Amino acid sequence: MRIPTLLAATLLAFPAYAANITDISDAVDGEKRLEVDFAIGLSHSTRKGKITREWNQKCDVEGYPHCPSGTPADHNGAVFDVTELRVEDVTDTMDLRLTFGLWHDLEVHLGAPYTLGESRSWVFASVADSNGISTQVTDANSTFRGLQKLDVNGLAGNSQPLISVPGQTYRSGFGDPYIGFSWAPFNHEREPRQPGDAFPDFRQTSTWAFGLDYTMPIATVDDPAKWRFTTEDFTFVDPNDANRAKNHWNLISSSGSSGMGHGAHILDLWTAASKRMAFVDPFVKLHFTLPLAVTTAAADACTLLTSNPQLANTQLNDQAKKNCAAPHGDGLGNWAGKTGYAPSFTGGLTLGTEIVALEREEYHLKIAFDLNLDTSYVSRGRNYSELSDALGKLTYTDQYLALKGSAGILARFSRYIQLRVNIFGGFETPHFITGEPPGHDLAPFNGQVDFATPEQSPVYDFRIDPNGRRARVEETTVLGIGGSLAASFY
């Protein structure tokens, strides 16, 4: 697409700011003695996904809708992924940030997120047969409900449904605050222009910045155990009963409240570089997040024995209770600090560019469009998953990739005010959200984990963690819109 001649002249005639991703507050720089920036950001996002579950098919006996149409007889007993639930997470957040410029392109900043509201819900999914006709999953044919035949010890008989469906939880409140610094040791705006080049604003040096943020585990921890129902009448309700949905929603609702804290020290390290070329300012960013769970983090399986014995009876098998209570430090029952939050680390790459539509540095005026794409890797860990609220506990999630794209507009109206609005969307690769390791092989080391011994992990759940019973999240999408308004004082 051609750029109008007048606009092109404007783009080429004036000095350029760095891309917003590498723009660092500074001080003791010309007329700036000290720069103070205050920003408030708002965002709304919707995250949706489908939960399936590995299940041992008995198609010639049970014939429920999960069985693939025309399944051969020799497939009887095979393990398939069956569709179970649709999940949705709708979140509205506000982020407050205060930044102080200390020296040339050196800043410190602090901030805190506030969740205005977060609603997590799950309902039975629909399953389409070979003719495209949809059938609703029900209590009777759900592997989380009517087909759940194992008790907490992995034995058939005294079983209960794993979760209540449909269900919903709601949260709000402050999250963990953060503090950090950013520095740009190389800034192309400080470099002399190169005469005789194609672009009047050409400089040989790119802008390079890096930073480190530390998130402090101060806020009340988000504990899924607070949302788990403690009692339920497991008699299946007539599907035609108009009060059925209302009854189930009430069952899962909590009379208490949960916080928005992570329960971990979080280190965010990033580095980014941008290179202004006429009206285009491409950039690249590398980022890495390392969370370190605190010993007092919520949702520790063993602490349920004293904090919530009733819930512990639904989540911990007999051997788990023994191992939690075993003396620690004897080389056998040493599960202290190993049955709680074990968050995943994340690393990613962002590629993008700013396209400057209008810029007048003498008036502190800039209008630019921002396009970027981020790919992140998320490792295995014991995390808050799509099933955590329904189960009332953290689950062991597998590794996956997350792809996110964003498009926005940045408008600087004066030296004091800057506005940014963007839309974003993304998806995640399918991955298991249950699958806790069974334990540790201890002396005399026979190369396997022996159940009903101190080697068995207290967190291991025979109902959802073994191969053939794990849950997986698929078709995960995220869509949202956000914006921020920043005021600068210097």
Helix proportion range? under 10%
Q: What can be said about the biggest beta sheet?
A: 12 strands, antiparallel, barrel
Oligomer: single chain
The whole-angstrom Rg is 27 Å
Return the structural class.
mainly beta
- Specify the CATH homologous superfamily: monomeric porin ompg
- Distance from first to last alpha carbon: 39 Å
Order of helices and strands: HEEEEEEEEHEEHHHEEEHEEEEE
Extended strand count = 18
Domain module tally: 1
Beta-strand content bin? 35-45%
Low-pLDDT residue spans? 1-17, 60-66, 196-200, 229-256, 328-332
Please give the count of helices.
Answer: 6
Mean pLDDT, rounded to whole units?
Answer: 80
Shape: elongated
Write a structural description.
With 490 residues, this protein is mainly beta. It has one domain (5-124, 164-299, 340-435, 470-489): Porin. Helix content is 8%, strand content 42%. The protein is built from 6 helices and 18 strands. It has helices at 5-13, 244-252, 304-307, 309-315, 318-325, 388-391, and strands spanning 35-56, 79-103, 106-124, 126-128, 134-136, 167-174, 178-186, 207-215, 264-274, 280-293, 346-360, 365-378, 381-383, 395-397, 400-412, 417-428, 431-432, 471-489. The protein has a 12-stranded antiparallel barrel. Strands 4-5 form a two-stranded antiparallel sheet. A two-stranded antiparallel sheet has the order 13-14. The protein is elongated and about 80 Å long. The two termini are 39 Å apart.
